[in-house]
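Example 9 (inverse folding). The structure is encoded as follows.
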């Protein structure tokens, strides 16, 4: 296939050619050499688009899990009253549970009624499990607590919180590790459901021009499904699968060893941990207290990461750690610092989210060779309500993208927790506007080259696939998209509205 267009971008630097020759799965030539080698029999494609460029990556996404289930009620953007109205119309799933996702108390009135009584009135005999938008909290009813073996005497688990009202009774809100008994009681997805959700999510990404992604959490129980998905050769996305580092069955994975990226761009080489919870549920672990009190949740025992991470990296595994709060980020950076420099350089440790980082810790990312995995779209979602959670000095540490440079930024969406459209994320990186359209910390905006780099080279580099993906130089996988606007020159508003006019992507 010979692709002809006056503006074919080969990489995030904006290198341009006007011809691209593809043979099989790879780019084999560009420019005049592409025309010369194509021959008269080659299929010629002339996309009617503003530009042609490499497909993007999503450096942090949940292709299944994180509350993403079939027959789940989507509560995104709803007020408390709207949620209750939606639930009144809800039918239970085949397993008898009422399951929802994406509730967000920031859409409620100040006296939001997150309590057992409301859910118990609607569903006195059926279990209800509603995932918060960040997947770090549940709102459940009494029947769900009963099935989980919990009652009013439940004690908080280490790294978790069972919220109580002024009267000392459970509200039905469970945060981080306190969710686990209910999640264990909830009938798990089977392989067929996971395949369905995976395929739907991957095709959603492809429709936005995303051809490769990092699947940010995979349980050991799903490792066989991962192997089957890779073996069938029909994945609509090139995936880097990460495995849960706290699984009791992790030794089985360690015996097998990491798998580096294969010819199609699939990889099983990363182990993931959580160092804290999420900002919205006040579970992000902070150096100073929230406005509402408390400093969040440290979800791993003291010293655990500092001991465990070097062991895993010595065995050849890349390690990625969720750390949203500044205390969590510092703890994770300390753990990575305990790894020999040559191992860090080879295996590329990742800190996921880097949402609140103390100024003293920002330079440590580059000094230690730690990749900052960021989700620009979270700024759009979070900053309108962040002042209700954080004090001014903490707000100044929020989304400190420019202070993290020159470390490698790898960008993603964290879907289904947030919007999977990468063009919305890139526009947010350029403007730092929340959904209220107010700019937050404009001194930390990224340039368009930096933003595109984070969604192409950065996402590929973070998963050891920069030699295959994120560019269209000869030898790279030929994941090509043609767009309705040009992200290298057009306005952030135009970028936000970009559509993929034509593509040559896996599964298509």
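The amino acid assigned to each position is listed next.
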């Amino acid at each position: 296939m010979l692709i002809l267009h006056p503006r074919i971008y080969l990489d995030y630097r904006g290198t341009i050619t006007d011809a691209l020759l593809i043979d099989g799965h790879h780019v084999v030539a560009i420019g005049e050499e592409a025309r010369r080698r194509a021959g008269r029999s080659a299929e010629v494609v002339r996309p009617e688009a503003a530009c042609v460029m490499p497909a993007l990556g999503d450096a942090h996404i949940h292709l299944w899990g994180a509350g993403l289930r079939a027959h789940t009620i989507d509560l995104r953007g709803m007020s408390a009253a709207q949620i209750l109205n939606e639930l009144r119309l809800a039918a239970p799933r085949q397993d008898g549970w009422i399951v929802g996702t994406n509730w967000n108390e920031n859409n409620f009135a100040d006296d939001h009624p997150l309590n057992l009584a409301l859910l118990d009135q609607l569903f006195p005999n059926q279990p209800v499990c509603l995932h918060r938008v960040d997947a770090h909290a549940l709102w459940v009813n009494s029947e769900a607590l009963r099935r989980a073996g919990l009652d009013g005497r439940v004690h908080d688990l280490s790294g978790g919180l069972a919220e109580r009202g002024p009267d000392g009774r459970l509200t039905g809100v469970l945060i981080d590790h306190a969710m686990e008994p209910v999640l264990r009681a909830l009938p798990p997805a089977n392989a067929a459901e996971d395949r369905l959700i995976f395929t739907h999510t991957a095709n959603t990404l492809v429709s936005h021009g995303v051809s490769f992604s990092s699947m940010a959490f995979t349980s050991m129980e799903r490792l066989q499904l991962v192997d089957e998905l890779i073996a069938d050769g029909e994945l609509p996305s090139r995936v880097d699968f990460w495995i849960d580092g706290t699984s009791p069955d992790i030794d089985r994975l360690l015996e097998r060893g990491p798998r580096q990226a294969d010819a199609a761009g699939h990889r099983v080489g990363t182990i993931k941990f959580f160092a804290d919870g999420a900002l919205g549920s006040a579970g992000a672990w902070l150096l100073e207290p929230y406005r509402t009190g408390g400093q969040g949740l440290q979800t791993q025992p003291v010293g655990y990461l500092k001991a465990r991470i070097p062991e895993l990296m010595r065995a050849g595994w890349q390690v990625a750690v969720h750390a949203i709060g500044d205390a969590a980020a510092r703890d994770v950076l300390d753990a990575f610092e305990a790894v020999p420099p040559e191992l860090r350089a080879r295996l590329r440790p990742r800190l996921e989210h880097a949402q609140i980082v103390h100024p003293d810790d920002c330079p440590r990312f580059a000094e230690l060779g730690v990749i900052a995995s960021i989700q620009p779209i979270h700024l759009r979602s979070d900053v309108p309500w962040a002042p209700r959670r954080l004090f001014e000095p903490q707000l100044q540490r929020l989304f400190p993208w420019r202070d993290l440079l020159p470390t490698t930024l790898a960008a993603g969406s964290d879907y289904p927790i947030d919007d999977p459209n990468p063009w919305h994320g890139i526009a947010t990186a350029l403007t730092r506007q929340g959904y209220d359209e107010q700019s937050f910390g404009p001194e930390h905006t990224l340039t368009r080259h930096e933003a595109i780099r984070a969604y192409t080279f950065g996402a590929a580099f973070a998963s050891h696939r920069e030699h295959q993906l994120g560019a269209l130089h000869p030898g790279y996988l030929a994941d090509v998209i043609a767009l309705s606007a040009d992200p290298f020159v057009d306005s952030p508003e135009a970028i936000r509205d970009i559509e993929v006019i034509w593509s040559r992507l896996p599964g298509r």
